[in-house]
């Protein structure tokens, strides 16, 4: 099966194509479909990404989607974020050192711009001699929709 495709006129696809090539990866429709899926649904779980990809490429196996996702993460095209106690989420790597707010009730994830704009945005009181690369910040909380639902159920209970 011939899987190499021509780069479509798609601004991010041009960047993806050159990024893939610079890492010695062939530009395949499978890799592009995974990148499309992750960019369409930021912070999706691997399972969500599998469903999204298979709606476009029904013959692509679940295993191959996982393999491509892991490889894209390894070459820095996709970043992986692991909320505490929840499956890992994936997004297109933006390089903006943004952080995440995670709802402990429904699991929704929102991007939070980095407070300083570059990594590491936190200066530790003790760096143990490390040359620090990044600080991963996760803000845990309750999203507005859950706050509303909680307020509504509190009113009902009264
Ligand atoms: Zn929520
Ligand atoms: Zn994000």
TrEMBL record:
Its main location: cytoplasm. The keyword Transferase does not apply. InterPro entries: FUR (IPR002481), Fur_C (IPR043135), WH-like_DNA-bd_sf (IPR036388), WH_DNA-bd_sf (IPR036390). Residues 1-22 are annotated as: Disordered. Its cofactor is Zn(2+). GO terms for molecular function: DNA-binding transcription factor activity; transcription cis-regulatory region binding; zinc ion binding. Keywords: Cytoplasm, DNA-binding, Iron, Metal-binding, Repressor, Transcription, Transcription regulation, Zinc. It holds the Pfam family FUR. Signal peptide: none annotated. It is found in: Cytoplasm. GO terms for cellular component: cytoplasm. Zn(2+) binds at residues 103, 106, 143, 146. Binds 1 zinc ion per subunit. GO terms for biological process: negative regulation of DNA-templated transcription; regulation of secondary metabolite biosynthetic process. It comes from the Bacteria. Belongs to the Fur family. This is Fur family transcriptional regulator, ferric uptake regulator.
């Amino acid at each position: 099966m011939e899987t190499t495709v021509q780069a479509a006129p798609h601004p991010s696809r041009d960047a993806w194509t050159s990024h893939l090539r610079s890492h010695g990866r062939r530009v395949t429709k499978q890799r592009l479909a995974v990148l499309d899926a992750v960019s369409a649904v930021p912070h999706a779980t691997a399972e969500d990404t599998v469903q999204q990809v298979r709606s476009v490429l029904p013959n692509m196996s679940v295993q191959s989607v996982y393999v491509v996702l892991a490889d894209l993460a390894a070459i820095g095209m996709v970043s992986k974020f692991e909320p505490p106690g929840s499956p890992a989420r994936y997004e297109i790597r933006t390089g903006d050192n943004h952080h995440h707010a995670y709802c402990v009730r429904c699991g929704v994830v929102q991007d939070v711009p980095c407070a300083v704009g570059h990594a590491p945005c936190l200066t530790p009181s003790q760096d143990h001699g490390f040359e620090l690369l990044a600080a991963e910040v996760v803000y845990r909380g309750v999203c507005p929709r859950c706050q509303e639902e909680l307020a509504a159920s509190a009113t009902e209970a009264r």
